[in-house]
Design goal:
6-stranded mixed beta sheet, about 450 residues, Purple Acid Phosphatase, chain A, domain 2
């Protein structure tokens, strides 16, 4: 048909025929009834396609982009019912609607008469689509992490530990999630203090030593620790938080993770010598929700089937740890605090009904804040041992004392003691020199 349109157009151009005469011949050859003016327009579109290499045969084209998106124009026959269903249109265009998501789609249509004297509804569909990304759930992460870590991280062969005599099983020492921000870089020239992975490691180990020193006095039988809570400063290979906020780190992301894993592994090996039972749960932070999850699963692989160290299988952002009449709720505290407080009695109604002493322990703000909402739940933000970086300093989030907290609980009497572990900001050393390179 295109050859016929081209031949007739050349004859009109050579003044052998008029467009009206050409249309009569075209209608006789094809069985399609069109006017001379319509034939002239068809010939004009055909010539434009030939002269424009970007427009392929039938005005159809496809352009693929590096991010997986595709932009195209296709001519298809669409009954009205199909046109109103985006998934069916996508399928008619030759794509699987389960794998592609529409960014935009426009239609222009015309009627084509066939030799059989029927009418086709033709549509030129211009569209842009992107691949659908599979939503990755916590269960997916868990399966992948456990599969990888089961191959790479073998359980530590620790001999079964005998119960330590003289420890009081009615007492519990709680170490809230250590908001270390491992990897963060702070320079005294910008912030008035230094902070890096070496200082962070020193402070982490000091917290572990203070736990043991507190245990030497209190002689508790049980230790409860939270893992995560912005333990790491970044969550991606491009050194951003979980949601993509850029951070200043002083250590490569692989080294940061391995260092954090070693810190906690060594700490748990030491702590199990001093307690009869150690329970751990996960608290996802806004800086390290994914990396702390992997840390938690890796540690679980290390201490699999240990008779002292136990890992909770609950991976929600909000969790509850029960100890006698005490209920300790954990969350990082970066989202919807008022709704979080109000929702706890509804979500944890069994634990709520079985407890008299209830506290919600949060992090995120790097300072201590205690709120009693007068409904039987004390909400407490704990401090952070982390130093400041340039962003915190420039935004004037300064003045909070670097610290961490331990809590001593009695299963019948509730909270007995709040123990502070404080750190002095690391100032510039007297012999520290600044080198300037051109």
């Amino acid at each position: 048909m295109e050859d016929l349109v081209k031949k007739l157009g050349e004859e009109v151009k050579a003044q052998k025929k008029t467009w009206k005469e050409a249309s009569v011949e075209f209608n006789k050859e094809t069985g399609i009834e069109i006017t001379g003016n319509a034939l002239r327009k068809r010939h004009s579109r055909l010539i434009k396609r030939k002269d424009n290499p970007k427009i392929q045969k039938g005005s159809e084209y496809e352009t693929y982009f590096g991010n997986g998106e595709v932009e195209a124009r296709k001519i298809v026959n669409l009954p009205p019912k199909i046109k109103d269903n985006p998934d069916l249109v996508v399928r008619e265009l030759g794509y699987n609607p389960d794998e592609w998501e529409i960014i935009f789609m426009t239609f222009s249509n015309w009627q084509q008469h066939t030799k059989e004297q029927t009418t086709k509804e033709l549509y030129a569909v211009k569209f842009k689509m992107k691949p659908k990304l599979k939503e990755i759930t916590t269960t997916d992460y868990l399966e992948v992490a456990k599969e990888v870590f089961s191959k790479e991280i073998k359980p530590i062969k620790l001999p079964p530990k005998k119960q330590v005599k003289g420890l009081n099983d009615d007492l519990l020492l709680e170490c809230s999630g250590i908001e270390l921000h491992l990897g963060k870089l702070g320079w005294y020239g910008e912030t008035g203090e230094n902070y890096d992975h070496k200082i962070a490691s020193e402070r982490f180990n000091e917290i572990i030593r203070e736990i043991i020193a507190t245990q030497d006095i209190t002689k508790v039988g049980n230790l409860f620790m939270s893992i995560g809570n912005d333990f790491f400063n970044t969550d991606t290979i491009t050194y951003t938080t979980t949601k993509g906020t850029p951070q200043q780190n002083d250590v490569r992301w692989k080294k940061m993770f391995l260092l954090g894993l070693e810190l906690y592994k060594s700490a748990l090996i030491e702590l199990r010598k001093h307690f009869n039972k150690i329970d751990l749960n996960l608290v996802g932070g806004n800086h390290d929700e994914m990396s702390s999850f992997y840390l938690y699963i890796a540690l679980q692989s290390y201490f699999n089937n240990d008779n002292v160290i136990n890992f909770s299988d609950d991976l929600k952002l909000t969790q509850c740890y029960q100890f006698g009449k005490c209920a300790i709720f954990t969350n990082h505290g970066d989202k919807n605090l008022k709704r979080l407080i109000k929702s706890i009695p509804a979500e944890f109604y069994q634990e709520w009904g079985q407890s008299l002493y209830r506290e919600l322990h949060l992090g995120h703000l790097h300072k201590e804040v205690v709120v009693d909402d007068e409904s039987g739940l004390i909400t407490r933000r704990v401090g952070s041992p982390s130093g400041n970086d340039e962003w915190h300093y420039s935004e004037r989030f300064v003045g909070a004392t670097p610290r961490h907290q331990l809590f001593l609980w009695h299963k019948e009497k509730g909270l007995l003691m709040n123990r502070y572990i404080t750190f002095e900001p690391r100032k510039k050393l007297e012999n520290e020199k600044v080198s300037v390179r051109a």
